[in-house]
Automatic annotation (TrEMBL), chains A, C:
GO terms for molecular function: tryptophan synthase activity. The beta subunit is responsible for the synthesis of L-tryptophan from indole and L-serine. It is an enzyme of class 4 (lyase). Belongs to the TrpB family. This is Tryptophan synthase beta chain. The keyword Endoplasmic reticulum does not apply. Tetramer of two alpha and two beta chains. Pathway: Amino-acid biosynthesis; L-tryptophan biosynthesis; L-tryptophan from chorismate: step 5/5. GO terms for cellular component: cytoplasm. The keyword Lyase applies. Its EC number is 4.2.1.20.
Automatic annotation (TrEMBL), chains B, D:
The keyword Disulfide bond does not apply. It comes from Haloarcula rubra. The gene is trpA. The keyword rRNA-binding does not apply. Residues 108-119 have a biased composition (Polar residues). It comes from the Archaea. This is Tryptophan synthase alpha chain.
């Protein structure tokens, strides 16, 4: 259950039996495909979720960078983000396990909406815990969850954001473990969650690796993905982790042999407004856990964290709500320590600029999370080789209001003039 | 390894308060009131920012304590400042224990024990705790499987490590815990998180039965709020009762209502006395005490 | 260029040469695949758009109706609706024709956003005309167009809605025909638009027909689609039109022969609040053009219209902005007259109820347009045979605010309690 | 087929106004003022709710007219009420022409000609128009390809059908139009929609050249707003000038400013006179008039 020194099961004793039961179910259904679980999962991912998602050649960006840029279009998945891969897998697993109720936490609301959709699809009652601050600022996602029939339970403790919601969901689970499954939204939490969520998300890189070989004749030189908790990141990396040869291999393989070589894996974190923390206030104006955090225990796992010198968890910050988390998946922490994954970060400004660039140049409006990956591409494409796959983890419809507000605070040449919205009538977005 | 002694003569009353709730000075008075009221062991909470095992009552206490400036170092001062003659147990989350020795920026804080120590794991924290007189730990997010390093440090410095047994804990997990536990075992009376409730769960007897061959005292917690509850629990075979939320409620109400420190302390002492007496009555009702 | 008596080219002389040029290009590139146009179109639809979209078995609805219900998931297309099929086709065609500028009209904003996305993808300057009333009430779509780099030109004439925007775009085109292509958003307008848009949308039924055969071994008994202008409708029907045998053929074909028989085609219009028109005010409180309109000439084509006795076009109304149009594609008008397509309508209430049902039962939040098709299914599933394909023309994220507002005016048992949104903080959707 | 006579002696001035803009009575006065000012033919707009070929100026006029209650039947009354001795052309969109005979609910309106007629196409409208004295039609959304039924009805009742030739009209399309046009041909001076502009487009000469072998008068419109413009256009070979937006602007401004009917009528008459005189001057400048 560990990734080097990371991972483990740091949870209240009351949850341990549930986690052990889940680990057992994970082993049987996911790893062994018992009762055809994985077959059904993949079939539902296709028919309900819309898989496979395309690997699209990005013409304008490729020309701009003189590098072949491919977009792995998870934004086209049902719900608008990679989140459904995991939510559908876990809700289906809960059904196989005989559970009768689904709970989940959500921050920006993406995981909550994905879970609510999956639960509706599989006819499971579903309750989502969401901090009241997040409820107020992510109303469309609250609407979506409610419209899919899920209960949304406001969490009023503390700042009322993601980490409080996670704690609250764990508390619910501690009371209801016998009939309830807790759908954790990323590759975090106690074992088996980090491995299991990775396995559900690995379909991203399974497809991308095959598609890249099909389209380019070889492996990409680099895969770039944004990293918050890290589920899209590990999903995009998983099948490339073992492509760890000494040399890059974008050299094509016309012979049809299985391509080999090294694929660089770049995890782009939210640099926020600064990498400097305010110890006094316990605030990190970023979410660059892999780049700047240090080891600790949070939400059931040992991993890298943003914490103060006492070990109290810091408030993280990012223009992107979905990256705004003080922890990170233990597997990513391990792969970074091993040197297999390169952690980098991109600040709010560069992410916003990249958001506009992708929208205007490629006609794909990315999630602000995703935009961080493109911010890195803009600044560092020279180091990424000849063929780069960027994971478009989600679409940006949810971020429109934030983007407009944040853009208006900055002087970004690339940003479109939004004054039409002031010239014409009122009404909320 | 001395916490067992608190259970030796009669059933133990083990209250919990979050250190520094609602502030340092009042909290000292409140903890001392519990000792006055008959506490045999006191569980002192060192607040962590992500208390995943607590119900709302204790969560709120933790927020109040953090906001009043509680830190690990301040916690150790708190313990030193306490004027009580009762064994003290530190209840906190593992990250605080784990990080204490790992910080390079502790130099400016009051104590120096952890200075520039790095990658030492729980040892510096345990060392410091022992130094100020803490006799044991309860760490709600540290199951037996992950407890090796802490157990080792506790052994080195002669501290107890209390584990929580849940109603759902069975088989191998019980074995693993039994190997590591010392001082007493915290028997969780029902599923869920901490919080005072109005009834005593039937699961308690079943839990006690599963632990009958353990050679540490069995203290039952979760949901005990009156002397009668305590009585029933002990009558059912517990060696002690752990009470948190009912006491924290008194602190919270006093804080909200702006009551004097003395008034709140009196109430705490009074409830403590009731609980201790209930526990004692319960022991008398047992046909055949089975404590080791 | 006609469908029976419908269709034609009723446009200002200045546009005729452009339309003839377009008709020529349509014939060569679309019909003849000159220069591999259709190949490139299909490839881009796949890689950029996310085609094929799944044909999903709807478990809960199938159980509810004791009928096999399949969902054609156009909501999963890039942009969230079938609109991209057409927009991408036309923008690509404009590029093949050497045009340098794209213009389009939009009502609710779906076609505008699809066109803006396609234009960004193909690196074409793009201007969208949109009524100022619509701009005020469809702000998220205005944001999206601007973010994709399109200009949005407010139309201030009249009510400031779709029909004014169409007229205004035609005016622009009349001035700029030489370098500009006008991307009409539905199977309306002068020839060749109705045929061409149908051909671009026909991919829906091409896929659906194949997928239905693959999944069920035969043809569906019915295909149900909502109808406003009618592009998703004809897209969903096109390949089934010739399945016009005397008998339904859901009887499976285990022999592997090409399935034959009759597939019923049901076009579900917006019944609005009532089918009764107010001649005095020139208002039809519905958009049931096929069911209640009569022949006339609008926006370049002869078709069925909602008009008063003088021939002035009426204000149409529907809870669904995308169906709110007083005209309809001439081909649909013709197929209705021929008896090949059955026009029906579903009122606002039933559409809202169906919106909630699909969201809760299947985890698919449909566009309000789409919800009309499901409203019909609820009430008339007995008549639709054993296997029904419903076209999920778009997703409902854009409609959340409308749905909540309209739901709150009604007493719908099925609607979720939205009071959490009042209990917790402020902030627009 | 008599509109050609208006071009016979000297270049014709063909003004346009929307009937009923801004209201019925004022509009009568304004149209009469144009006749006073020297109009040779008047194009009277019957407003349609979707005027796809008009620029903003005339669109706004159409909205004003519709809001003041203009309908096809009211339009015919308007024509009857007009006290002018100038040929009148009805400029409208095809749906109004097409629907006139197709309504079953016309019975309650002023005229009865279309009663219960159904599927008769344009005939009832043309019949009624002829009855009130209209001499021809301009239908901006009816290209020659779709004009068969209307051409037929016009022939039956002796009316002209004017087509618009755009700068982009070429080859076959010109042929088709030439076969059907009568009265005069409306030469669109530039691409775009109606609207007054400050320059005269070079395309005009090219258009006139393409039509040199047509045997109907060539009236040039789109963008003419001053006597000098008219002069240039006619000097370039046009048989007449069509002016709409510049006149509608006067109506709109008068309406906005609340000017008296007389004041607005005077301004219209004055501009009409200027335009007519400009056209006449232009004809004198032509080296060799080429009109048929």
């Amino acid at each position: 259950p560990k990734f080097g020194e990371y991972g483990g099961q740091y949870v209240p004793e009351a949850l341990m039996p549930a986690i052990e039961e889940l680990a057992d179910a994970y082993g049987r259904y996911v790893l062994e495909n018992e009762d055809g679980f994985m077959d059904e999962f993949r079939e539902r991912l296709a028919d309900f979720g819309g898989r496979p998602t395309p690997l699209q050649y990005a013409e304008q960006l490729s020309a701009r960078y003189d590098t072949d840029v491919y977009l792995k279009r998870e934004d086209l998945l049902h719900g608008g983000a990679h989140k459904l891969n995991n939510a559908l897998g876990q809700v289906l697993l809960a059904k196989y396990m005989g559970k009768e109720r689904i709970i989940a936490e959500t921050g920006a609301g993406q995981h909550g909406t994905a879970t609510a959709m999956a639960a509706a699809h599989l006819d499971m009652p579903c309750e989502i815990y969401m901090g009241e601050t997040d409820i107020a600022r992510q109303r469309p996602n609250v609407f979506r969850m409610r419209i899919n029939g899920a209960e949304v339970n406001p969490v009023t403790v503390g700042r009322g954001t993601l980490k409080e919601a996670i704690s609250e969901t764990m508390r619910d689970w501690a009371t209801t473990v016998e009939n309830t499954h807790y759908v954790i939204g990323s590759i975090v939490g106690p074992h088996p969650f980090p491995k299991m969520v990775r396995d559900f998300q690995a379909v991203i890189s399974e497809e991308a690796r095959e598609q890249a070989i099909e389209k380019t004749g070889g492996l990409p030189d680099s895969v770039v993905a944004c990293a918050g908790g890290g589920s899209n990141t590990m999903g995009a990396f998983a099948e490339f982790v073992s492509d760890d040869g000494a040399e890059r291999s974008s050299a094509k393989n016309p012979s049809g042999d299985e391509p080999r070589g090294r694929v660089d894996l770049v995890a782009v974190e939210a640099g926020g407004s600064s990498l400097t923390v305010d110890e006094e206030k316990g605030v990190a104006p970023n979410s660059a856990t892999l780049s700047t955090g240090d080891e600790g225990v949070l939400h059931g796992a040992r991993t890298k964290l943003l914490q103060d010198s006492d070990g109290q968890i810091m408030e993280s910050h990012s223009v992107s709500a979905g990256l705004d988390y003080a922890g990170v998946g233990p597997e990513l922490a391990h792969l970074v320590d091993e040197g297999r994954v390169t952690p980098v970060n991109v600040d709010d400004d560069a992410a916003l600029e990249a958001f506009h660039r992708l929208s205007q140049d490629e006609g794909v409006i990315p999630a602000l999370e995703t935009a961080h990956a493109f911010g890195y591409l803009e600044e560092n494409h020279d180091e990424l080789g000849d063929t780069v796959v960027v994971n478009v983890s989600g679409r940006g419809d949810k971020d429109l209001e934030t983007v407009i507000e944040e853009t208006s605070k900055r002087d970004l040449d690339i940003a479109p003039d939004m004054s039409i919205l002031n010239r014409v009538g009122g009404g909320g977005i | 390894m001395g916490l067992e002694r608190a259970f030796a003569d009669e059933p133990a009353f083990v209250p919990y308060l979050a250190a520094g709730d609602p502030n340092y000075e009042d909290s000292l008075a409140y903890v001392e009131a519990l000792a006055e009221g008959g506490a045999d062991v006191i569980e002192l909470g060192l607040p962590f920012s992500e208390p995943i095992a607590e119900g709302k009552t204790i969560q709120d206490a933790i927020v109040r304590s953090l906001e009043s400036g509680m830190t690990p170092d301040r916690f150790f001062e708190f313990v030193e400042d306490l004027d009580v003659d009762v064994p003290l147990v530190c209840m906190t989350y593992y990250n605080l224990i784990y990080q204490y020795g790992d910080s390079e920026s502790r130099s400016d804080s009051g104590t120096a024990s952890g200075d520039t120590a790095s990658q030492e794991g729980p040892r510096p924290f345990v060392e410091k705790a022992a130094e100020v007189g803490i006799e044991g730990f309860v760490v709600p997010d540290l199951p037996a499987e992950e407890a090796g390093p802490l157990r080792e440090a506790c052994d080195e410095f002669g501290l107890d490590l209390v584990f929580i047994v849940a109603p759902t804990t069975r088989g191998d997990r019980l074995e693993r815990m039994m190997e590591q536990v010392s001082g007493y075992v915290y028997v969780q009376a029902r599923l869920g998180v901490t919080g005072a409730r109005d009834d005593v769960d039937d699961a308690t007897e079943a839990s006690l039965a599963r632990l009958s061959d353990w050679d540490v005292p069995k203290a039952v917690g979760f949901g005990i709020k009156t002397g009668e509850h305590a009585e029933e629990i002990v009558a059912a075979g517990a060696d002690g009762v752990i009470v948190g939320s009912a006491l924290v409620d008194i602190v919270a109400e006093g804080h909200e209502d702006g009551d004097s420190t003395e008034a709140v302390a009196d109430r705490l002492e009074s409830l403590a006395r009731e609980l201790k007496q209930g526990a004692v009555r319960g022991a008398q009702e047992r046909p055949q005490p089975e404590r080791t």
